[in-house]
Amino acid sequence: MGAGQESRDLLQAAGCAGCRTPFPRAITMAFQPIVDVTDGSIFAFEALVRGVDGAGAASVLADVTPDNRFAFDQLCRRTAVEFAARLRIEARLSINFMPNAVYKPDVCLGTTLAAAKRHGFPVERIMFEVTEGERVDDRVHLTHIMAEYRRQGMATAIDDFGAGHSGLNLLAEFQPDVIKLDMDLIRGIDVSQPRQAIVASVARLADTLGMAVVAEGVETEAELAVVRTIGIRLVQGYLLAKPGFERLPEVRLPAPPAKQRAA
């Protein structure tokens, strides 16, 4: 029995009538690092879904339907863990999940735990990301999901923070370990005082709440310099590394400006 059929059987046994429909295409993963720019170490690798032919995430996500979303979510988890073990990732593995595709948190997470055990990947190095702007049918359900992940020793993150209208409420309700700032807040931050003020305020708030902050979408050295000045250590973006298709890309970390090194 394949891992996919095993996952569907477990979910159906738990009463998930919508878990019978398989996802209609094969997928694979690309990996992009989240880098600690203070020392160049890797905080995490984010697993990004791809078609086996190299098709981007948008192409794959276009095939997700209400009927196959459960199978898709489980397939992404298993594939990410399998590749993380194969590539010998020693940092955290960050996996995006769809709250509306989690039938029962403990049961759905059980298939992830089984995959981690099967491939020898430590579960405590798994981090789950939920996008702030994603429509969630049941906020209480999402609260239970996040609580179950924490109970199992896994980290949680809110992705694209600042893109939606409920960011502060999400922080209060779910208290994630990591906040990933939406790239639109970072784009052009070097020439935008409003963006600098907003990002600095969020960074201070996160520090007060004991949450780490990731600046996503950093593409220029000028943006990186401002992010560093604000005090954000964790950075993700094309400037440092583009996603590697079924591989771990090499990181290029520009040295900080002389005045930042002196500080």
From TrEMBL:
Residues 3-257 form the EAL domain. InterPro entries: Cyclic-di-GMP_PDE-like, EAL_dom, EAL_sf. GO terms for molecular function: cyclic-guanylate-specific phosphodiesterase activity. It holds the Pfam family EAL. This is Diguanylate phosphodiesterase. It comes from Methylopila capsulata. The lineage of its organism: Bacteria, Pseudomonadati, Pseudomonadota, Alphaproteobacteria, Hyphomicrobiales.
